[in-house]
Amino acid sequence: MDTEELTDVAEKAQEAFLAWRDTPVSVRTRHVVRFGELVRKHHDELATIVSKELGKTFDDAKASVFRGLEVVEHAYSTPDLIMGESLQTVSRNMDTYSFREPLGVVAGICPFNFPAMIPLWMFPLAAACGNTFILKPSEKVPLTSVRLMELAVEAGFHPGVINMVHGGKETVDWICDDLRIKAISFVGGNQAGEYIHQRGTNNNKRVQANLGAKNHCIILPDADKEDALNAVVSAFLGSSGQRCMALSTVILVGEAQSWLQDLVEKAKKFKPGKDYGALVSKESKTRIEAILAKVESQGGKIVLDGRNFNLPPGHEYGNYIGPTVIANAAPGMDCYDLEMFGPAAVCMQADSLDEAVEIINKNKFGNGASIFTSNGASARYFQANCNVGQLGLNVPIPVALPMFSFTGWNASMRGDVYFNGKQGINFYTRIKTVTARWNTDAKYQTVLSGSFPVMK
Ligand code: NAD
User: Fold this and answer.
1) Per residue in 74-91, pLDDT tens?
2) Domain contains 447
3) Which candidate among 81, 243, 255, 427 keeps its CA 20 to 30 Å from the CA of 336?
4) In a shared domain, residues 56 and 199
5) What pLDDT, on the 0 to 100 scale, is given for residue 252?
6) What's the total number of domains in the chain?
């Protein structure tokens, strides 16, 4: 889109804001409820679009739409969640109270890997809070967002309240620079996200940026082996590994090191085309193959190789990589240092739990980490000492429901205020505090004084 078209969108969103912020919060929320009902009604259709434009299997796409719908449903509680605070009689005849007010026009910049879920993290809550919204979907998967916009129109959102723009870097730069846009929600990789955070905050915008990841799990020898290996393999192969919470690094501790071959056998059972879909693009496949090409020269060992496998009938044109497992991974190797974002896990070894936790804490990312154990004390040690923002105890992908915030740490997040939960409301609002005095008693009339006023 050219600058003229983008400016037109921003002007319409700005104009709509003035009426939308004065619309009662319950009425705004009712629009979101109607929209949520439409997402539910068109669940299969949305999942089909996700599946067609991205390549996820239909079941996986359907589940991802559902996870987005849960966030929309969380926004139904906005009238409760947006309430401020009050304190009566902070001084004679004086009360103090605070409101949460919307910011104005806010924007969302989305990644390719969840074409429905990530937009649904953003605009329903932002709009319920009284903001108007400009959504920029990933240029790789814009069609799901187009359908979401049609559903927003059908739900009765006033013109200019929910808007969409298209494009890549130039559109992103415009979002960072246009001063009508007060805040940016970003989800995507580190390169783009760190740039957007910097450019947006330089323009005094509020920016929340959920970034890339390298999620580790620790398997202790006292874990339920079958349960742990099923969970871990599903968590690195599901969605062909194209999830920011994919469990891409497995640390086998002590005697659990002998479980590597069992893990490989389970990974072999996954059938590309049936159990997970194609990668988003040929570039993505080529990038992963380039990382795999370096594994052995960098000291690793590919124990299950997903390159050059026979494509399943009907999927001959898909960008597939088969299940892949790398042993002897270590820092300094590309397969460990880079986010692969494909159906592959790297495996490492540790002699003890604290050594395993130390490996995780040395990694620059901090999105998610899990432990598999039957020992409560080990789980508690992990919980207390692992410097990662979302932990799973015998849970492979610890993404909490949206009444909690999505709390990635370290290089997996830029900004201070998280998506979802109460922090989601905090991000899309700012607090106005009012101190009010309605004097009814001549005794407390203001007297002339040069001293700083104190409450009496
Ligand atoms: P990406 O960073 O390439 O793209 C995300 C958005 O940024 C897109 O809308 C794109 O148009 C824009 N963009 C890309 N390059 C840009 C540049 N140079 N300048 C300005 N804008 C640019 O991410 P992706 O490949 O679409 O998505 C995968 C990444 O997203 C992975 O790193 C994954 O971990 C991350 N992700 C993180 C979360 C989370 O919650 N932490 C969730 C989903 C995905």
Assistant:
1) 999 999 999 999 999 999
2) no
3) 255
4) yes
5) 98
6) 2
Residue with tokens 């106005």: 432
Output the pLDDT for position 289: 97
* Ligand 1 pocket member 367 (CB < 6 A): yes
What pTM was computed for the model?
0.97
If asked whether residues 130 and 269 sit together in one domain, one would say no
**Tens digit of each residue's pLDDT (9 = 90 or more) over 269-280:** 999 999 999 999
How many angstroms separate the CA atoms of 161 and 250, rounded?
45
CATH code at position 283? 3.40.309.10
Which residue's alpha carbon is nearest to atom 20 within ligand 1?
Answer: 169
Domain check: are 240 and 206 in the same one? Answer: no
Closest CA to 263 of 250, 254, 253: 250
Q: Are residues 27 and 129 in the same domain?
A: yes
* Token digits of residue 287: 């990038």
What is residue 370's three-state secondary structure? strand
Residues 166 and 268 grouped into a single domain: no
Taking the centre of ligand 1 as the mean of its atom positions, its distance from the CA of residue 207, in whole angstroms, is 15
244 catalytically annotated: yes
Cβ(339) to ligand 1 under 6 A?
yes
Residues 77, 18 share a domain:
yes
224 and 201: one domain? no
> For residue 110, how far is its CA from the centre of ligand 1 (angstroms)?
7
User: Shortest CA distance to 13 belongs to which of 94, 454, 296, 5?
Assistant: 5
Lowest average pLDDT, out of 189-193, 307-311, 452-456, goes to: 452-456
The verdict on residue 398 lying in a domain is: no
- In the numeric block, the tokens 């009508």 are attached to 180
Sign of CA dihedral 390, 392, 398, 402: negative
- CB of residue 73 inside a 6 A radius of ligand 1: no
Which of 113, 120, 176, 388, when mutated, tests ligand 1's pocket best, judged by the most ligand atoms within 8 Å of its CB?
A: 113
Task: Check which CATH number belongs to the domain holding 158 and give it.
Answer: 3.40.605.10
Identify whether the C-beta of residue 365 lies closer than 8 Å to the C-beta of residue 410.
yes
Domain membership of residue 453 (yes or no) is no
- Structural domain boundaries enclosing 304: 216-393
